[in-house]
Amino acid sequence: MSLPGSQRAFAQASRWLLWALARGADSETYRRVRAPVLILHGDSDRLVPAGNSQQIGRLFGWRVEVLAEVGHVPMLEVPDVFVRVVLSWLGTSVCPELGDPSLAAPPGTATSAA
Q1: Which DSSP string do the residues of the chain spell out, in sequence order?
Q2: pLDDT for 77-112, tens place per residue?
Q3: Looking at residue 81, what is its pLDDT?
């Protein structure tokens, strides 16, 4: 699945991540977030353990999806699953009018934690 604008969205997310890392965002910064948050993390990530994202999700009440057999860059490793999970989350958490059950992740590809 290749959706229009997905490359642009990836570039924007990457830019934000680099900005946040350079700025040194701390837990107080995260506490001020008032928007719904989804964290996607691969269970085979060898750089950052999935448990880190799960802990952050619990701490701030954010939704965490751990993708099975995926490493550090799920949007590149399994773009179809990545887009499906994000669209499903958007449809249930942000814009219910986008909710489409056919966009849900296939069974066994994602597990919720938060």
Answers
A1: ---TTHHHHHHHHHHHHHHHHHHT--HHHHHT--S--EEEEETT-SSS-HHHHHHHHHHHT-EEEEETT--S-HHHHSHHHHHHHHHHHIIIII-GGG--GGGSPPTTSEEEE-
A2: 999 999 999 988 888 877 776 655 555 545 555 555
A3: 94
CA-only gyration radius of the chain, Å: 14
How many CA atoms are closer than 13 Å to the CA of 50, on its beta-carbon side? 22
pLDDT of residue 22 exceeding 70: no
Closest CA to 1 of 96, 100, 79, 94: 79
From CA 99, how far away is CA 95, in angstroms rounded? 7
Average pLDDT over residues 31-38: 88
Matching residue, tokens 């700025």: 23
